[in-house]
Amino acid sequence: MWIFLLPEIVKKVLILSMTTQTQKNWRWWASWLLWPILFGGAISLTVLGFAGDNPVLTFNIIYLSLATILLVLELVMPHEKTWLANDGQTFANLAHTLLSKGVVQGLIVFGGVIGITSMVTTVADPGYGIWPREWPMAAQVVLGLICAEFGLYWAHRIAHEWYPLWRFHAVHHSVTKLWVINTGRFHFVDSVFSIALAIGILLTLGAPLEVVTWLSAVTAYIGLLTHCNIEMRFGPVSWVFNTPGLHRWHHSRDLREGNKNYGENLILWDQIFGTYFNPDRRPPVDIGIAEKMPARFVDQLAWPFKGLLKSR
User: How far apart, in whole angstroms, are the C-alpha atoms of residue 60 and residue 98?
Assistant: First the structure.
């Protein structure tokens, strides 16, 4: 039972061991260093893990470790203290995460049955399309992120601007606080649409399995970081990557702010298509949607379909 009290114990020990000025200095430096250290550390460990005998297990260990670290840091140095309050949506958040991942895994299995996944071969095998398999793997991963991000950007933007898809995406935007646990709170229809566009681009170009795998890992890590409720500063990092600072604007109730920063991992396509938004002021604490979202997980699954039927 004591293990569940560990984050609060760590928080109190850190606070009691520091003077007020020391706390301020520590938090300032930490706020600048946390994002690059956590993301860079996860990527570095993943490089080592993917070179080993059990990359899937290694990735899951890294992912869960990063999530645990972020949960502790949310208690120690929260961006918004009011977001620490329980919103009653923890079960729904986790249920959406598990269902979305389950549906995607099921589609991958189905893709294997009909022969689609057999198109994705390792970089050492003969490929197809115009993908530059002779490039160094790091360069291929960067290219894969840029290409897949084009699909993720437009899937996300369409989900905001086209009402039928907005109904599904609204499940994610209905949260009234951002924290690690609602990272994966997506209606499974919303998830399938986004992944289909991103992976479809890579399949069309002939990207190897390693690039697809790295895309999944990077998206998972940045997703956790983007939604965390931790005091951070980003500077030029927000010119390239989707950061918590940018994503908090994206969750604004004011659509002049909320219909911006559609990038999943990179912010490149927002820069190109004019939807980048990062003013020099604090993002809103009051986030959510205008519509009323039911509290129960099962009702949230049905909510988009009911709205679409009523609008016909």
Answer: 14
pLDDT score recorded for residue 42: 98
Give the model's pLDDT for residue 2: 45
Residue of 157, 105, 160, 103 whose CA lies nearest to 301: 103
pLDDT in tens, 148-168: 999 999 999 999 999 999 999
Q: How far is the C-alpha of 107 from the C-alpha of 95, rounded, in Å?
A: 18
User: What phi and psi, each to the nearest 5 degrees, are found at residue 241?
Assistant: -105, 155
For 248-263, the pLDDT digits (tens) are 999 999 999 999 999 9
CA 22 to chain centre: 32
Q: Note the pLDDT of residue 113.
A: 44
What ranges do the domains of the chain cover?
84-310
3-state secondary structure 207-250: CCHHHHHHHHHHHHHHHHHHHCCCCCCCCCHHHHECCHHHHHHH
- Angle, alpha carbons 115-52-43 (nearest 5°): 90
Q: How many residues does the chain have?
A: 312
90: nearest Cα among 224, 181, 4: 181
CA neighbours closer than 13 Å in the CB half-sphere of residue 304: 20
Torsions phi, psi of 231, nearest 5?
-70, 110
pTM of the model: 0.91
The helix/strand/coil state of 287 is strand
Q: What is the rounded CA–CA span in Å between residue 77 and residue 30?
A: 9
Q: What is the DSSP letter of 182?
A: G
Stretches in the chain below the pLDDT threshold 50: 1-3, 113
